[in-house]
């Protein structure tokens, strides 16, 4: 018997191929939905890997050597320097903030990021100066005046030009060059001013190096090939265990930038995933409507003896081929677009991404795309499998009337779970990924329920007098209505957009409105203890100033928590920042006004015992320590173990002077330190105060908070706009689904329109009924999405970000308006043809 | 007997001698307005090789009875045996295999697959049956009905009569034991219908197939060996062997 010669699969392939000869019509949206989502995920992954590859490639350049050491307040000791000299080539760079003044009559002044370099700087790469000027030549002392090179914006700010002389501390500097590129400079959010570069000898002449000043000493080490980075750093740690320096190697050349990229990648991947999920609804719709059009053929197959499994395979293969096509297009865009973007934005980023082919994000995107296609297509496919042969004899039948076999329901659930697992496994922050999965799953359930509720409501509304409104309402609930899929797809996209708009709006409000009200006008840093009295006096002599506070401070790094080295302690993600760098410390005999002690007690005013501290309660919780435990801090190269005797609740957003760690008197008093001060003042007094202080105290740096906040707000606005436009991709996905759903129902629309016309309806009546229907659909979707989006944003702002919440109606209205316009335009475009349809030909064909 | 009419899943016949055996067959369908009794105790036997015409008013249960015989519709009660196989306990796929191996159906609306050529349409049941030279056999069947020049045409490119001739070839392709024809000329003009009917009877005579022909046209039905009248879900006339 020949029956077994041809396997069922081969037969299914043969039939699938024959059916696909009909072309891709009806599947364009299917392919587009998948391609969009896959392209988004692949693109984000590729860009992220390109940046990481760029970071790795430039790691040595950004770090300035194979190893970078950093000390605060004090330089390396002669013993350290001797060791560096013996084992490597090294360079010393000193960084601090300082005030610079023009020597012209106008005496303009500015806060700068000062960098003093030695003769060996830079060990890697070159500093590019305008006009190819040599750096070290430019920094030399000529005619009794040291040279300085600066960023162009300092010239603008001070209204000076090359050749002019600037006053820095107690020395003068001639402007000899303009910096175009600094090999070791990574974009720094906390940059308060333009760069000014001088020689280390020049810095000594300024006399700005004072005890306790916020000075960072950096040592860049270049090792010869024979010495490994790991063995060198290990040896360093053994030889100088208490040096207190922060050691970085090329693998962590720019950790701040790395963190920023990680966060953006995480967020954008979620946007990509949401787009793919939205697209999944489109996939499901397209497969359903395709299979609905094949009901008679499927029944014919069955009449002719095809078992359900063969029917299932025939359509599974077709959908598989089309899904593969969609995924491939997505991958192609995911490879090409990042390459084009990298080319277009060359030089605009702090590092140059390494454009290239990165298989991992492409494979991940392909797996996501295939899983989505399978999960969303399986349900209609499984229903088609169950279509009975008797259907050939019945006129109206839809596969949606059939319930799939249990094993397929189970497979769909497994597909959903696999998506969740893959999302969590591929995210660089599993915790966020878990919340994303829960949130998205919850949103889908709520949207689906809301869609059912909407359909039921539309069904229940009776006694509407307007014909158009009655038609519009009935179109929302009748069989084959697009209500459910539109609420689900467009609703999900809108939810994301509204959440983002509200979160961003709250953040902007914080920076633009709340902070300026609460923030002081000035921060003053590096006030020497001997200057304290004079400084206080100077400020208080300015009439009209507001609240003024000054505290002693120096910096130290937490090295042990309860006796265990920090790198071995599991620290809650929310307080990791406290161990990342050096923390500002202070000491006080009495608690400041408004201090909230939540555990333990403050020390007696005349305390004079072993080191004890009062710690931020939130940090204590994140560290897993409580009263009686110890923290060990490296301060100026000395390790000090201090016992925690009280915990304080600190609201960092209040911008009041506060410190995570406050020492009792007796420990830090004797160490070299400086003071910082904050001053409230009306805007009109700002210039005057800056002049008075900088004229008398040329070592004190003045930070104008308003300018800093403005810079932060501008940056935040930029990031916010970028995020919003990226998230709009989800809306695009939703629009595709809408267009697909309308295309699928176009025949019915045309038929409806024709029947209406036969019954005497004008084009205007039909058009207004259709527009009303899409307007209602858009409005309902917007309202549902607004509620879910607002609740999501509220949860994130209040619980995740710990900020106060304000509902921003404009953020919601704008998004809602966009949604309604989109639905109405697409709805109108989708039904326009129906209006022009002549009745007779269609009726003759029926 | 054809070499295709084996059905491993089928229950052996309880009744010998008839190609089609219906015994007290009832069928009710549930609708929103309540249950509707479509077939109400039909008992009927058709001999092997016999041609039976079914006539009767619309809604009398003719098409439904044909669906029951083809295993397309399950009965509420009674016994249905087609080609010696008891259909009562067969699964959906079992019924599909039963049809593949035993039954050919000709529809009023042809039901050709629009994306397949005439040749491919005829080859479908042969391919389902796992015949290796399906295309060769399909080609022979189409030449036999005078469509040798239309092999690569799609249904949309064929006239109604040609489409029905393709459908006839498809129904006879596997040389089924039973052929069921539901108003095969209902969508054709008189002359074309006549050609199709001549062809249908010719094929029936040549293959010795048992045939059941549903028609509104008494003249057509009279060309069969026997005519059964169905009305109100019951056999009104001509049930016996």
Structure overview:
The complex is a heterodimer of chains A (846) and B (241). By secondary structure, chain A is α+β, with helices and mostly antiparallel strands. Chain A is 54% helix and 16% strand. In chain A, strands 2-3-9-6-8-7 form a 6-stranded mixed barrel. A 6-stranded mixed barrel of chain A has the order 13-15-20-17-19-18. The two termini of chain A are 45 Å apart. Mean pLDDT of chain A is 84; it is low at 1-5. Chain B is of the alpha/beta class and 241 residues long. Chain B has one domain: P-loop containing nucleotide triphosphate hydrolases (Rossmann fold). Chain B is built from 7 helices and 10 strands. In chain B, a hairpin with a 2-residue loop joins strand 1 (18-31) and strand 2. In chain B, helix 3 packs across helix 4 (134-144), helix 3 (118-128) packs parallel to helix 5 (160-172) and helix 4 (134-144) packs across helix 5 (160-172). At the A-B interface, helix 1, helix 9 and helix 10 of A face helix 2 and helix 3 of B.
Question: How are the SSEs ordered, and which strands pair?
Answer:
The complex is a heterodimer of chains A (846) and B (241).
Chain A: H1 8-20, H2 28-63, E1 67-72, H3 78-87, E2 89-102, E3 109-117, E4 128-129, H4 135-139, E5 141-142, E6 145-151, H5 152-158, E7 165-168, E8 171-181, E9 195-199, H6 200-206, E10 216-222, H7 229-239, E11 246-249, H8 255-293, H9 295-303, H10 308-344, H11 359-385, H12 406-426, H13 430-460, H14 467-477, H15 483-518, E12 522-527, H16 532-540, E13 548-561, E14 564-565, H17 577-580, E15 583-587, E16 596-600, E17 612-616, H18 617-623, E18 630-635, E19 638-649, E20 661-663, E21 674-679, H19 686-696, E22 701-704, H20 705-744, H21 746-758, H22 763-800, H23 809-836, H24 839-845
Parallel strand pairs in A: 3-9, 6-8, 15-20, 17-19
Antiparallel strand pairs in A: 1-10, 1-11, 2-3, 2-7, 2-10, 4-8, 5-6, 6-9, 7-8, 12-21, 12-22, 13-14, 13-15, 13-18, 13-21, 16-19, 17-20, 18-19
Helix pairs in contact in A: 1-10, 2-8, 2-10, 2-11, 2-20, 8-11, 8-15, 8-20, 10-11, 11-12, 12-13, 13-14, 13-15, 13-22, 14-22, 15-20, 15-22, 15-23, 20-23, 21-23, 22-23
Chain B: E1 18-31, E2 34-47, E3 51-55, H1 62-69, E4 77-82, E5 85-86, H2 92-102, E6 103-106, H3 118-128, H4 134-144, H5 160-172, E7 178-182, H6 190-207, E8 210-214, H7 218-221, E9 226-231, E10 234-237
Parallel strand pairs in B: 3-8, 3-9, 6-7, 7-8
Antiparallel strand pairs in B: 1-2, 1-4, 4-5, 9-10
Helix pairs in contact in B: 3-4, 3-5, 4-5, 5-6
């Amino acid at each position: 018997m020949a029956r077994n010669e041809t396997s069922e699969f081969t037969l299914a392939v043969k039939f699938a191929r024959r059916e696909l000869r009909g072309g891709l019509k009806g599947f364009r949206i299917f392919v587009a939905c998948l391609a969009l989502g896959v392209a988004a995920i692949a693109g984000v992954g590729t860009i992220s890997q390109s940046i990481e590859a760029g970071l790795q490639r430039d790691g040595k350049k950004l770090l300035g050597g194979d190893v970078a050491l950093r000390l605060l307040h004090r330089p390396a000791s002669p013993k350290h320097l001797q060791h560096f000299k013996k084992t490597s080539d090294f360079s010393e760079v000193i960084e601090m903030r300082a005030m610079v003044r023009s020597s012209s009559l106008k005496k303009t002044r500015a806060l700068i990021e000062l960098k003093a370099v030695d003769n060996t700087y830079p060990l890697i790469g070159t500093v590019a100066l305008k006009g190819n000027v040599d750096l070290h030549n430019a920094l030399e002392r000529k005619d009794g005046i040291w040279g300085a090179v600066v960023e162009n914006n300092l010239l603008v700010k001070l209204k000076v030009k090359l050749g002019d002389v600037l006053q820095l501390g107690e020395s003068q500097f001639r402007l000899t060059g303009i910096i175009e590129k600094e090999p070791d400079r990574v974009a720094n959010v906390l940059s308060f001013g333009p760069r000014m570069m001088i020689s280390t000898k020049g810095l000594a002449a300024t006399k700005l190096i004072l005890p306790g000043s916020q000075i960072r000493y950096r040592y860049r080490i270049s090792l010869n090939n024979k010495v490994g980075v790991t063995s060198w750093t290990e040896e360093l740690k053994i030889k100088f265990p208490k040096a207190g320096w922060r050691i970085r190697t090329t693998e962590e050349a720019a950790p701040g930038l790395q963190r920023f990229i990680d966060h953006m990648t995480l967020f954008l991947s979620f946007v990509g995933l949401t787009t793919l999920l939205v697209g999944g609804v489109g996939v499901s719709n397209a497969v359903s409507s395709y299979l609905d059009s094949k009901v008679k053929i499927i029944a014919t197959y069955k009449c002719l003896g095809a078992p359900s499994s063969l029917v299932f395979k025939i359509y599974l293969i077709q959908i598989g081929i089309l899904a593969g096509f969609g995924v491939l297009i997505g991958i192609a865009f995911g490879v090409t677009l990042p390459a084009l973007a990298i080319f277009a934005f060359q030089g605009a980023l702090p590092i140059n991404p390494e454009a290239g082919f990165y298989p991992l994000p492409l494979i991940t995107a392909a797996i996501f795309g295939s899983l989505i296609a399978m999960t969303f297509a399986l349900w209609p496919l499984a229903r088609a499998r169950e279509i009975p042969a008797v259907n050939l004899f019945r006129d109206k039948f839809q596969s949606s009337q059939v319930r799939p076999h249990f094993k397929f329901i189970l497979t769909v659930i497994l597909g959903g779970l696999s998506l969740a697992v893959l999302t969590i496994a591929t995210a660089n922050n599993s915790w966020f990924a878990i919340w994303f999965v829960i949130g998205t799953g919850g949103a889908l359930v709520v949207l689906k329920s809301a869609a059912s509720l909407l359909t039921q409501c539309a069904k229940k509304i009776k006694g509407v007098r307007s014909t158009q409104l009655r038609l519009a309402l009935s179109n929302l609930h009748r069989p084959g209505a697009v209500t459910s899929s539109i609420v689900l797809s467009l609703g999900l996209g809108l939810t994301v957009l509204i959440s983002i708009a509200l979160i961003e709006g709250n953040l902007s409000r914080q920076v633009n409105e709340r902070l300026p009200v609460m923030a002081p006008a000035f921060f003053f840093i590096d006030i020497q203890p001997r200057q304290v009295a004079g400084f206080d006096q100077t400020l208080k002599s300015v009439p009209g100033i507001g609240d003024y506070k000054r505290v002693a401070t120096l910096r130290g790094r937490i090295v042990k928590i309860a006796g265990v080295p920090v790198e071995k302690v599991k620290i809650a993600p929310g307080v990791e920042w406290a161990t990342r760098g050096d923390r500002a410390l202070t000491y006080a005999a009495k608690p400041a006004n408004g201090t909230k002690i939540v555990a333990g007690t403050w020390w007696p005013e005349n305390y004079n015992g072993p080191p004890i501290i009062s710690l931020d309660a939130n940090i204590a919780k994140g560290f897993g320590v409580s009263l009686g435990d110890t923290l060990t801090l490296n301060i100026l190269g000395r390790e000090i173990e201090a016992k925690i005797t009280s915990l304080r609740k600190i609201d960092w957003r209040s911008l009041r002077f506060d410190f995570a760690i406050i020492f009792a008197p007796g420990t830090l008093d004797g160490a070299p330190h400086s003071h910082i001060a904050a001053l409230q003042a009306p805007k009109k007094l700002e210039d005057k105060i800056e002049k008075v202080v900088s004229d008398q105290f040329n070592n004190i740096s003045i930070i104008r908070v308003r300018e800093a906040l403005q810079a932060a707000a501008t940056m935040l606005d930029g990031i916010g706009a970028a995020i919003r436009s990226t998230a709009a991709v989800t809306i695009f996905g939703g629009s595709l689904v809408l267009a697909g759903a309308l295309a699928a129902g176009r025949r019915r629309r045309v038929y409806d329109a024709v029947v209406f016309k036969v019954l005497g309806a004008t084009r205007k009546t039909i058009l207004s009924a259709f527009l009303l229907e899409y307007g209602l659909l858009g409005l309902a979707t917007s309202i549902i999405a607004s509620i879910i989006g607002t609740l999501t944003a509220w949860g994130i702002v209040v619980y995740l970000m710990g900020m106060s919440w304000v509902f921003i109606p404009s953020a919601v209205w704008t998004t809602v308006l966009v949604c309604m316009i989109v639905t109405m335009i697409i709805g109108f475009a989708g039904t326009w043809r129906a209006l022009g349809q002549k009745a007779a030909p269609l009726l003759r064909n029926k | 007997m054809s070499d295709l009419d084996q059905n491993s899943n089928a229950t052996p016949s309880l009744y010998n001698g008839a190609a089609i055996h219906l015994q007290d067959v009832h069928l009710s369908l549930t609708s929103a307005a309540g249950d509707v009794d479509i077939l109400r105790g039909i008992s009927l036997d058709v001999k092997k090789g016999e041609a039976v015409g079914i006539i009767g008013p619309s809604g009398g249960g003719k098409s439904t009875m044909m669906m029951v015989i083809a295993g397309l519709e399950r009965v509420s009660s009674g016994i249905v045996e087609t080609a010696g196989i008891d259909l009562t306990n067969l699964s959906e796929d079992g019924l599909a295999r039963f049809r593949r191996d035993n039954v050919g159906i000709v529809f009023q609306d042809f039901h050709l697959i629009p994306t397949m050529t005439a040749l491919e349409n005829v080859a479908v049941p042969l391919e389902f049956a796992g015949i290796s030279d399906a295309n060769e056999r399909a080609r022979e069947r189409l030449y036999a009905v005078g469509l040798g020049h239309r092999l690569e045409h799609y249904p949309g490119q064929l006239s109604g009569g040609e489409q029905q001739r393709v459908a006839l070839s498809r129904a006879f392709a596997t040389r089924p034991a039973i052929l069921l024809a539901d108003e095969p000329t209902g969508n054709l003009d008189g002359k074309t219908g006549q050609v199709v009917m001549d062809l249908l009877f010719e094929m029936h005579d040549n293959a010795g197939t048992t045939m059941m022909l549903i028609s509104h046209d008494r003249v057509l039905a009279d060309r069969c060996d026997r005519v059964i009248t169905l009305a109100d879900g019951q056999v009104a006339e001509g049930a016996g062997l």
